[in-house]
Amino acid sequence: MKKRILSLALVMMLVMSSAVFADETAKEETKPAATEEKKDEAKADEKKEEAKADEKKEEAKADEKKEEAKADEKKEEAKADEKKEEAKPEEKKAVTFTDVKEGDWFAPAVKFAAEAGLFAGMPDGTFAPAGKITRAQFVTVLGRKAGVEKAAEGEWYAAYVKWAVEKKLVMDKTEENFMPSEEISREEMAYILNAFLATTDMKMEGAKEVKFADEADMSDWAKEAITMLAKNEVLSGKGENKFAPKETLTRAEVAQILFNLYAPKADEKKEEVKDEAKADEKKDEAKVEEKKDEAKADETKTEEKKDEAKADETKTEDNKDKTETKEDK
Q: CA 306 to CA 182: how far, in whole Å?
């Protein structure tokens, strides 16, 4: 009986010892899992903080780029407005003369030539449209058109005469024998003007057939120039289909010649400036759009980082669930 009791006691002790051992083993097995879980949580929290910090940085960068884009947009708008103003027809200072009336045939030409700085009026406020043009005055007008500056010293026409001689605009003339005060003839004017136009990039391609009735009165050296200018409608006759090559020129007539040559070109230049302004405006708009696209791309990156942080958070939650499942087992 005693033996049986002792045996039962031993069995119970063994069972209890096994239970304690199993319990201790379970505890030991659970410890690493709990430690790993804490590590994962710590890592997850760390990643969350990093993600938040990165998110704030990206948001700050995005905001900064937005502000830069806005500032650039304002700059480009200001530039575009400035270019629009430049493209507007230039408001020239109005020039009026007491002896030029609105209905006069030469009024538009005189206005154009005076506002372009090619002609100046008389000291008494008149233009003297019927006044005769001298050789010095004519090369001065062309010299102003070419951008020649007036000489600081000497005669008012000295720099222009020197320029005309150097450019070989006047035939067989030097500064010494130029005869500046002599009234210029129509054929001399045609020769000088044609020679001047040959030094510019203006194309003379007129195809109008012209034959003047007084061609026999023209000097041989002037015929080619007169024909070329008449074909291009720069010059015209004096009535009865005569050119009157030996007659002199008035100030109004020279103003009209300049108007025939340059007034249409001035309008074309305005259109060209407008086209350039439009092209620049489109370029500026493209730059602004590019900056906007960059800002959007940065926003997309920020969203992607947010999604990555959420994905990491989800993984951490999954790891927690797995750990809890192990513990339950």
A: 89
